[in-house]
Amino acid sequence: MATLTGKLFSPLRQTYRYLQKQAHEQPVIFYSCVLGVIGPVMVVVVPPIRKKFGWRKPEEIPTSYPIPNRPRRPVQGYDDDP
Prior knowledge:
0% strand; elongated; single chain
């Protein structure tokens, strides 16, 4: 039984040792990989937490100016006509 669990967890132990070695020898690459793994996890974890704390989506920003509900008057007096 001990050899079965050893065979199952051996890749995890080797991966941990490799990551530990990389953290000491090349910390920039190691922490870049850590941040790369955290990003997709946050996509799944953060929205329910925000909802739990009462966050609501803000109102949409208007993309156009509302047209007034009156007839349009022609512009006069600016000498734009040739």
